[in-house]
Amino acid sequence: SREQVVAIDAKTMRGCRSAEGGQVQIVCVTEQSTGIELDAALCPKEGMELPTGRRLLQETYERSERVKISTGDALYADKKLARNTVGRGRDYVVKVKKTNPNCSKM
Fold first, then answer.
1. How many CB atoms neighbour CB 11 within 10 A?
2. What is the pTM of this model?
3. How far apart are the C-alpha atoms of 84 and 79, rounded to whole Å?
4. Is the distance from CB of 17 to CB of 5 less than 8 angstroms?
5. Residue-by-residue DSSP string for 56-106
6. What is the pLDDT of residues 65-94, one digit of tens each?
7. How many CB atoms are closer than 10 A to CB 94?
């Protein structure tokens, strides 16, 4: 069985609005070599991308031992997510920005 590298990211759905009138965001876990979405989840409300992404990535880990490396943008430079990922024997690569307050705490 081949190891997988996945990316986690959210997309705002243009032209879609929630019942409350806010923008609709979907967090996706995508296998990088194929571009195939392994899973996706709707963010329950604005500002919930990180918690939704954490949950989605953990569910992906539980379903597949093949996922060995996860990548994410600067939002996912999150200590809790990084510790959980590395604690499961996987690697975690994120983009780090000086403007992200989470990065200095990692």
1. 12
2. 0.82
3. 9
4. no
5. HHHHHHHH-TTEEEEEE-GGG--HHHHHHHHHTT-EEEE---TT-TTGGG-
6. 999 999 998 888 888 888 888 988 999 898
7. 22
